[in-house]
Design the sequence.
């Protein structure tokens, strides 16, 4: 039953990690290491059942393989989940015990932060293993990836405007930005700098006020964001916001934002095409975050990071070419780009280009 599931999704290895004294129950899933070591964050969540945790880690690790492959990284896909409540169950022992399991994999899996985990937790993991990214800047880490993610999303937007309208004049178009958090606010700033008309919404009123006063955005209600007359809808909050209820309301011609898992399901992805809307695949657009942490493996350098963000433009352009070539929706074309890259690079058999985890520039402290 278990191996059937692994065979269906193509996972290489699943590790169950248990330390009774530290209260650790975690699962590490390595989906694919053809391009390099599996990189993906650790999520801490109070899963209702072990099956739910397993399902989540299998799904998320597979997603990382696709994201990392399309991003052009020499990195495979993996993910970890820790079963527990981030508000109550965190401890030094728990994260150090988890770090020991990461270490035991000898670099086949490299971890990072995800939902429920912060940089302080990663400090404990880092005491036990080198195979962790997103550590604090004082250790040579890359710091908050959000501004990079926003800048990368802008590169994705340029390629998408070009494809849809034949120009890259950001300021000529209007935008509906949903979510003004770490990425969304920075994205609004970049749009404003280019003279765009922007509609914004967020649950947090202070963030909306900031977007209005600092970037001249127009505030709209949480639900109203789907009805505004904007050329581009930019989801930068939660996933699943493109669904059968919202799609008929959207007036946009382009969907391009940083949120993960924007399409509620594949059927809605097909429906988006029928409505003449160009969808910029989310995991290609928001790859800036993972690119930024992946650079830590080689010795982090901000200029290199900005340069790498600009490759998102070309990744999107390539996805649109594949969409044309094969007559498939863009969300499928992104998956195909990932699969083609894994297949062709996997055949090269160049061990030196794989799994270079040198961690240059790291400073170990107590
Ligand atoms: P964040 O938590 O800082 O911001 C999310 C914002 O969305 C918050 O301000 C929240 O109030 C708002 N929000 C939540 N529900 C909303 C709703 N229904 N309507 C309007 N606003 C709502 O998160 P973030 O780091 O900015 O990430 C945003 C999205 O981008 C997430 O989907 C995340 O997974 C994805 N992403 C982020 C990064 C990164 O570098 N931070 C990288 C890749 C992908």
Sequence:
């Amino acid at each position: 039953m278990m191996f059937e599931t692994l065979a269906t999704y193509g996972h290489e290895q699943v590790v169950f990690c248990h330390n009774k004294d530290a209260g650790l129950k975690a699962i590490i899933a390595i989906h694919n290491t053809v391009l390099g070591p599996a990189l993906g964050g650790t999520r801490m969540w109070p899963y209702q059942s072990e099956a739910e945790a397993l399902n989540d880690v299998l799904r998320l690790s597979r997603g990382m393989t696709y994201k990392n492959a399309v991003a052009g990284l020499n990195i495979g896909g993996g993910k970890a989940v820790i079963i527990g409540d981030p508000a109550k169950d965190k401890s030094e022992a728990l994260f150090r015990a988890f770090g020991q399991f990461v270490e035991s994999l000898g670099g086949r899996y490299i971890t990072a932060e995800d939902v429920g985990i912060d940089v302080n937790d990663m400090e404990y993991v880092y005491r036990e293993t080198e195979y962790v990214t997103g550590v604090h800047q004082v250790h040579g880490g890359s710091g908050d990836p959000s501004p990079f993610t926003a800048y990368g999303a802008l590169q994705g937007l340029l390629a998408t405007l070009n494809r849809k309208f034949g120009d890259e004049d950001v300021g000529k178009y209007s935008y509906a930005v949903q979510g003004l958090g770490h990425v969304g606010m920075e994205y609004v700033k970049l749009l404003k700098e280019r003279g765009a008309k922007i509609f914004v919404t967020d649950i947090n009123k202070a963030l909306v006020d900031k977007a209005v006063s600092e970037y001249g955005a127009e505030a709209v209600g949480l639900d109203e964001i789907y009805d505004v007359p904007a050329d581009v809808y930019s989801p930068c909050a939660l996933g699943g916001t493109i669904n059968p209820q919202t799609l008929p309301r959207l007036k946009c011609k382009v969907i391009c934002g940083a949120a993960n898992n924007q399409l509620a399901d594949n059927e809605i992805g097909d429906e988006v095409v029928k409505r003449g809307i160009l969808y910029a695949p989310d995991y290609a657009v928001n790859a800036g975050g993972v690119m930024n942490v992946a650079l830590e493996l080689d010795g982090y350098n901000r200029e290199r990071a900005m340069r790498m963000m600009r490759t998102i433009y070309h990744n999107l352009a390539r996805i649109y070419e594949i969409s044309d070539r094969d007559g498939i929706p863009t969300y499928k074309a992104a998956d195909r780009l990932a699969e083609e890259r894994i297949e062709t690079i996997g055949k090269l058999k160049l061990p030196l280009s794989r799994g270079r985890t040198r961690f240059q520039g790291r400073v170990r402290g107590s």
Q: What stands out?
A: Residues 302-326 form the longest helix (25 residues). The two ends are 44 Å apart (CA to CA). DSSP finds twelve helices and twelve strands in the chain.
